[in-house]
Amino acid sequence: MTRKLYVKTYGCQMNVYDSERMESALAAEGYATTETPEDADLILLNTCHIREKAAEKVYSELGRLKALKARAGVQIAVAGCVAQAEGAEMLARAPAVDVVVGPQAYHRLPKLAEAARRTGRAQLDTEFPEEDKFDHLPAAPKTRRAPAAFLTVQEGCDKFCAFCVVPYTRGAEVSRPVERLLREARDLVARGVVEITLLGQNVNAFHGAGPDGTEWGLGRLIRAFAGIEGLARIRYTTSHPNDMDDDLIAAHREIGQLMPYLHLPVQAGSDRVLKAMNRKHSAAGYLRLIERIRAARPDIALSGDFIVGFPGETEADFRETLALVRETGYAQAYSFKYSPRPGTPAAGAEQVPEDEKADRLARLQALLSEQQAAFNAAQLGRRLPVLVEKPGRHAGQMVGRSPYLQAVHLEAAAEETGQILEVEITGAGPNSLAGRRA
Ligand code: 5AD
Ligand code: SF4
Prior knowledge:
Helix content: 25-40%
Shape: globular
Strand order of the largest sheet: 2-1-3-4-5-6
Structural class: alpha/beta
CATH architecture of the largest domain: Alpha-Beta Horseshoe
Bound molecules: 5'-deoxyadenosine, iron/sulfur cluster
Largest sheet: 6 strands, parallel
Oligomer: single chain
CATH superfamily of the largest domain: tm_1862 like domain
Number of strands: 21
Distance between the termini: 52 Å
């Protein structure tokens, strides 16, 4: 009898990718995906630990799901960064949980679920095994025909920013071998994918084993991807400023398929705060880097991440963040109030008062929204190639993406999904564009 699987994914794109791969691994064991937890035999939560009260939110979700276990045979599995961080603690606190599995052990999930059923005992695997989990996880289900796909090329982080849990939950930086990535990319393209986003917590630190026995950087990997026939667009995320090497910057100049969009978090604009954050770069260093990237690709759209209210941040420090934002000009950005993550170096420090954090966040977001609206408005009247991705809200409407990752609403047929249309931009809102076929 087929068992039903319900998956809920929190957090970043890497989790989205991981969830799909776990889904395929379980599909191979006879699981069919369902959209509702109520009729699932296995409920999988793929969790994120990056921000505020992540673990508490998972525990309260588990509290709600517990009732569903009244039906015989129902299992709950928790994956992702909260699973990794909590480990055995989660089994102790939430007895309804049958499996706790960390991000490097996903290929073992079907066996863990089976073992839990057979023995009636909860299973825990938060190891960092030697083998590459992706060798044992089948590719995304063949039925999915989305034209844009993610491909994890690198995981983990060795940077240890003082606020961040990633080096602890995802472990040290590991890059996947080039040949395997090319094989996976060709498979995706054969299934109709025309845009691939290379994923990694620190993607531009990629240093995978090349087919020639040397280590390849991300720039070189992108050049090889550009040689795949039928792959029209390449993106990558997320990057650290210190890993933007010359070759990667040159790729932005030379590789037509590499889209003019770069998510390059800086976090703060004050050197004092950057130092306390252990970012290992200065504000001026970041601005110089942006200049070099813009020299290579003048129309590049920039995106970033910002933290306000890091311990010790003064009003004057915060104004330097605003100044850096004004000087850079972002097309898009994410900003957060600092929240202490247990086990990270900054967690114990004296906190900036909550109302100051809230005030700074509101001021920063007002500036970033203004920049985003201006960037969108600047596209009015332009002709942009738009990749048609999915149906829009109204009949006859589809949503696509501009090269700058803006959502573009246009009239098109569902059959045109996956095509890149020339679109004249006729409308610009704060979060999206509208256009018509040129
Ligand atoms: N508090 C607030 N924001 C954080 N981020 C990471 N850790 C924290 C934290 N403790 C933000 C950073 C990072 C993004 C993914 O999440 O800006 O770039
Ligand atoms: Fe976290 Fe990114 Fe810093 Fe690594 S580089 S510690 S993932 S914020």
